[in-house]
Protein 1
Amino acid sequence: MNTFFNILIDGLAYGMVLFVIAVGLSVTLGLMRFVNLSHGAFAMVGGYGAALLTREAGWNFWLAVPAAVLVTGFLGAALEALVLRHLYRRKELDQVLFTIGLSFVLIAATNALAGPQVQLITLPASLSGSVDLGFRTLPAQRLLVIGVGLMVALTAAWTVTRTRFGVWLRAAVDHSGTASALGIPIRTVQCASFAAGAALAGLGGILGAELMPLEPYYALKYLVLVLVVVAVGGMGSIAGSLAAAVLLGVIETASKYLASEWGSLFFFLAMATLLAWRPNGLLKR
């Protein structure tokens, strides 16, 4: 029974990391209809930023995290405004080639500036300890990951479905010409959406540094996992991405506990099974 609860808790924490990174890509792919394969690079930038600020600059963790997230969001906004907006009406292959090339550029820059070693984020005393759950002790940092993941899910769902900005975003995607004629600032909506997705990826890179180590090839190493979450959850479905991330996170964790020699085989078998069962996404009709 203890093993079951351990798998459940660790799988939930891992799934929340995948979700926080993947939710921005889900919105970009599903609502903006832009294939952004540089999304993993934004997660890496956020993680590296927090690591350098806490370790090299001596910043407090609670100041370094929002600063790194804001810098990542600003980088996403700058790239969208200067370059990526020109690719919206281009073929998907053009988007794929450019964004994967952007990932390689960021990987090379990261390797040159910070070196090939794994980057560690210095945690405050409140997150360095453990919390006794009765059946096991859990690092306090993982409880933060779970809590932040739930907050991101609720905030993202509320923003897309209940706010004026969410209405603008859906209108801009469905019929940009009519939306523009009605006075909706299309370019502002597109840039803000992309920046928010990049910032969330950066936040996920910070929160998941313990489970998904920060190193130069992070951008490509974990991109496949994020794409799987988006595909299984359904593009543009925040609830579907959350369900897929948690389910796949628990399956991946269970395989490591019970059959570690098989690596991630069960993760991809689960992906194939779920896509065969629900090809449009777990919660999509």
Protein 2
Amino acid sequence: MARTLRLILGDQLNYNHSWFKESDANITYIMMEIIPETEYVTHHIQKVVGFFSAMRTFANHLTENGHKIIYFRLDGPENLQSFEENIISLFKDKNFDRFEYMQPDEYRLDRLISKFVRKQKMPFEVFSTKHFLASRNEVVDLFRDRKQYLMETFYRHIRKKFDILMEDGEPLTGRWNYDSENRSALPMDIKLPKALFFKHDVTELVEMFQKMKVKTIGSIDKEKFPWPISRSESQKLLDHFLENNLSKFGTYQDAMTSEDAYLYHSRLSFALNTKMLHPMEVVNKTVKHWRKNEDKIKFAQIEGFIRQIIGWREFMRGVYWAKMPQYEHTNFLNHRHKLPDFYWTGDTKMNCMKHVVNQSLDHAYAHHIQRLMVTGNFANLLGVHPDEVDKWYLGIYIDAIQWVEITNTRGMSQFADGGVVATKPYVSTSNYINKMSNYCSGCYYVRTRRYGEKACPFNSLYWDFFDRNKRVLENNPRVGMAYRNLKTMSAVEIAEIKKQAKYYKENSDTL
């Protein structure tokens, strides 16, 4: 029998993969903590701790179930700090005959490992991770010869394909989408659910990163690391969401408040993106829970959640594989500004930015509207180069892996792809932020002013954004209202707005 070495990457922790059904004395698994994976961007300390903790827990699980595993710790003396070099060393020392790996989800790792095995001319085989509902090429096949990919079309395709919330080939209630009912701000007197946190002592990992001089951002309570690091904990987090949050998730999924970071969100993205949970497992459990509680949980709540799991998440992956590697260099609006320093420190007088950035630094977490309509909105209005925006989002959030981060950032948030993902730029003045949050209350800036002393930066930058991008956006019907409003403004007012925006752009670090 051939002696086989199988590679498991840090986001391939699929406890139920067919690889692990039975142990085999001729198969050895390899997992690695290596410096390059901590350096391609500056990561949040909770992100690197989360991935390494989950990897170590998974490795222990395999050992306990009789599998042979070689695990390279970051500070291990035998660790050559390279996927390729560690594999070559093992083939020499252990006399392996063949190499097997699961398809990486990041383009850079997919190409790195693919080139490596072909260069070494070793017998190898590539396996599916058996995680996603759609194939890599499903978006391409569905939207062949179309410039724009519509998530709603893809979402309906997946609903039909897997018979999710369907009846006789039609949506269960006669409607596909309840998004219009899921945009409410929080009432003043609402009692928010208590988030489920785990309490892991990760002192050893934190001290190892310090010893190895791994550069990170953000903060961590090393004695109470709160994220799930095993499949059982991930399942507990899902159960907690269903019991405590689902009944109001849809209604308030876009809401923001300085009083609570998590609201009704599931916080399952880290567990899903590391594959400790399977998306269909989440869907089936959610539907089962809803059917038992239809009197308490409106259909709009469950539809909104399932759309995120089977629609948006899978769609982002499909766009990624359809458009890489060119997607990584898109800059449709030709943005060149640098990312303001306060994205790394939270030191700004804008309440909304201060809150969301500090929340991100403290918890490695922000929900989709905080990312899209606060930090992403401001970067787009300011004209920050999408490369810098990418690096920030990819580093600061615990769930950020490039396949899901870059499509949301360059596509949905920054419109850098020119409309492949989004039909319009998602930008706003302070009005939207004030409508959906309490951030504007007590802010240094005056949210109603477009220019003048303490005028909210979002306002002048918003109108400047549309004015400077008139050539490429004016004919977009989804932003027609902005241009109609611009035409009603006097030349004097536009000049004042642009003057204010220019000042803010030149002094963005001190806002």
Protein 3
Amino acid sequence: MVSTPVAQAAPQLSVTTVASGLSIPWDVEVAPDGTALMTERSGGFVAVRPTGAVVRPRADFSRLFAVKEAGLMGLAFDDGFNTNRRVYTCQAEARPGALSIPSGSADLPLPFPSTGQVVNVVAWRISGDWTSATREPTVVTGIPVTASGRHAGCGLAVSGNTLWIGTGDTATPSVPQNRQSLGGKVLRAQLDGGPASIYTLGHRNIQGVAVQPGTGRVYAIEQGTDRDDELNLLRAGGNYGYRPDRAPLIYDESVPMTDPIRVPGAIGAVWSSGHPTLATTGLQFLPSTGWGEYGGGLVISTLKGERLVFMRLSADGQRVVSSVEALGESYGRLRGLAVARDGSLLVTTSNGNSADRLLRVRWMS
């Protein structure tokens, strides 16, 4: 059963601009040395060094398929980044044959026809001076994406040797419940090799995945239809109940986000937005100090809602006991989230036209 948290008055926050002139920075993560690395949807890394200097590492994105909601998306650092300099991205790409592939490509062979597009999870090695990124073998392939780019996902999180991948259902009726498709799922892959496996299914469009420090619980934030963005606590093998295939070939978004009648045993959300949706994107757990009563809680970013939503979970992680909204309609659409070394929150805007910014947010009350 979805909890109804106690809403509180908006907190006082301090907001400063860290970097500007960005173009839809989809995700942001912070390296051990304090560098904030971002992915821009149309292709390209942007690194903001602790000194404030902005560096754009050279990288080959010639195969990138950047259309609407698809492009260069989720980002995660390897836990061993200090020694291996490895990061992972979720990116939509043209399949082999759809355009020329640079010689010396490190990609694994893809078992697909020579046209169309696919979402791949790619490993990159970042140079020590942050000026270049070298592509390494593809980690996961076969995640579907359509020519429209709709519901492409794609959120990433790393915990030890495990890579968590939240995917979109491509707005295709059968995909969320189809165990033969990697769309509308949360996937789990082992970074030391082996294929990705389906961890959960029955999702619509996941753009944020996060692992709770101390407990290892994995959460995903999912975009709803005209109602009910969801925060879900993931359970191995769980079905989260989205089934939009009421009629063949018709994507029926009037169905519930969690439908226990048509999907027996469907797992309910920890939190749901109700109506209207906020278009939830980023998900991040906060440090235990420096965030008032929300220390150790979580924060969600929203596009349509143009706000941050802070939440405090119950001890068992299955309920939201309180929540508060902030930055409402002050900075436009908000997307990527990361915690900086000083405990502040980094937030990317997603307004387009090279007018986007990386913001630093601090809790003042």
Protein 4
Amino acid sequence: MRRTDLAEIAYNKAIKHYEKTFISNDSKFFLAEIYLNLGHMHSYNGNNNKSIECYNKSLQVCPRFTLPFQNKIMNLSYIFDELQDKMYILNQHKLINKIYEKGNGMFKFDISFFNSKKINIGIISGDFMDHPVSYFISPLLKNYNNDEFTITCYSECIINTKLYNDNIIFKLIKNMSNKQIAKIVYDDKIHILLDLSGHTAFNRLDVFALKPSPIQITYIGYPYSTGLNEMDYRITDKTCDNEEVSQKFYTEKLLYLENSFLCYDPNVTTMNNPVTKQFKLEITPTPYLTNRYITIGCFNRVNKITDNVIKLFNELMLKFSSIRFVFKTKALINKSVQKTFLNKFNSSVRSRITILDCTISHNEHLLTYNQIDLAIDTFPYSGTTTSCEALFMGVPVFSLYDSEFYFHAQNVTCSILKSSDLQKYIFNNKQELFDRLKSINNETDDFWYNLKNNTKNKFLSGKVCDQKEYIKNIQNLFKQTFEKTRLNYT
């Protein structure tokens, strides 16, 4: 019901009376779970610091409780720009090694393990379908070369991999122990084991900690290092990360993919839903032509819209009286959360802010991009799927580039823009953004009339949507990494 205000009252009552619980035999663990859920609630409402505070309280009660630890380090990515010590986030991630059971040589590899006609790739995830990750793993699953690779999907949920590719091997791992899954992976002789979740929901990093595969790679689903000693590599690109600066922020060795590390498949939404195939995603002319003012959208989740982001948006509206803002995110359905959010803006600009209601279907959501002219990305945690959807619907996305720390989470949209020949929407500081918006505000009707089609066409013809080029690059990366590892066993 999104009534997080009522939920908070209930959680606080539960904390006060947790010892009287009748739903758990372990009242201390029950208290840790309450703090965990309270942390989720604050994160959902966009209060990252309060959520981290609750996760810490959960860990004080149960120090080895994995869920609050992983949610805490995930939320640190939202406040990276506020951290005085930029190594703090990595040092926190490294603590995962004290929580997970280690393999300690449980699985042995020698040259015979690599004697295979094909390279065996295993993918562990709970996010193959109905998740943002599915947009970006789909090109690999649909287009890999079956003569050179076998792919096995180890999934936390039942999926129909035939929608991707008839050759994919599917194995359900839900409710299996880490050792059970690790033995299956090892017996399958998986040469390269991919993690698509990092520290997000349904991850099985506990399996990777046992090291059942000689090459373990984290990819797509998490914006930072796993911190896990047994994770060998992380796939990125040279826009998101920097070869000279970035390595110190990761326990994994960085592998740089040509162009963007992402490949977007806009057709994923219709793969498993015949109804949406009949739905027309018609792009309408940009609303500026009717309104005569610029409407800027931000459809990112509210905990990405930090106080520093709001400060920038607020400054924009104070500087440009012709600018309006539109927000669309689930948490703002709650009137109490919405009020707190709006009160962070100067009272003189609040009348120029619209908050859209949530849509039922994904395609209806995409059509709401017709209500905005431009989008401005969040920082220090940028959009990924949100940015791709905006560009797919013809809406340019301005994004702030971090060229000091090369914080991966902040630079993802910049990578998407650069690989789509839309780098003019990348800005390095707020003055560059102000200057660009001032210039756009003076553009002719001809510019506005062609803006959406030009943006969509560049995006679809760019490297981020070039599945053929992407498959060539990532398969080469897999082959090079496999060969390098194989030589170590000769």
